[in-house]
Amino acid sequence: MSVVTGPWARCWWDAEAGWSPAADAAGTVRVIDSWLTDEGRVRGLGRHAERFGAACERLAGPGREETGRFMRAVAGALPARGRWFPRVELVALGSSTRLRMWLRPAPQRTEVLRVWTATGPDRRRLPAVKGPDLDHLAMLRGAAAAAGADEALLLSPEGHVLEGATTSIVWWRGDTLCGPPPGPGLLPGVTRALVSEIAAAAGHPVVTERATVEDLAGVSVWTLNALHGIRPVAEGLGRFADADAVAADRWQSRLEALAVPAGAALIPASHP
Q1: What does the pLDDT look like over 159-206, one tens digit per residue?
Q2: Of 50, 151, 203, 237, which sits most exposed with the smallest number of CB within 10 A?
Q3: Structural domain boundaries, residue 196
Q4: Are both 118 and 230 inside the same structural domain?
């Protein structure tokens, strides 16, 4: 049964006591993860749980067993109706940490977006963990919006495409799906992993490469994230044609077909 009684609800979780309401956004958020829940169905929830658990462990939060129990409790608390964008958090309160869920209505999905390239050095402190750089990334998205775009593109010191402020970046060279190589400067994207597996299963080569903005001038570029899924870039990176939107929509259907009921999305409790 869901513990949530209304929209925008925050709840603390304790391994012994379970859920309790959180009256406000107290504490310093150190790690987050989020995903789309649509009519009780989710995609890639096990991967989100694994990424969240690894990040918590890396930042001296609870271990994998506790975060695994927390994520299973979250899955059981998600509403069976409506579109939601829940966020799980590791929160620092003084010298201790706690786990919190924030249930949020899902924003409207968009199908394409415009990209603005961030200027200056990459000032993220811990790019491979979702949470420590939230304020900086929000600032970059604000700068992108002021420039008439929807997303900020981040580049390496050498000028190679890394990712967006809230998205993974991939591109197509013919039938080959390409993306930047993994590493400490890149968030391990759950949706990127799912799309790569769909592509490989369909017989498409999946490769990594370092590419500048100029290198991608003639190819179709996609942005990927858990909320919107697949969105081709319409301005600011790569090239865009009506056929790109049609292809992205077809692949979006394949991605959405991976969604399963939240309660069945995580591994058994005996294997956290």
Answers
A1: 999 999 999 999 999 999 999 999 999 999 999 999 999 999 999 999
A2: 203
A3: 113-256
A4: yes
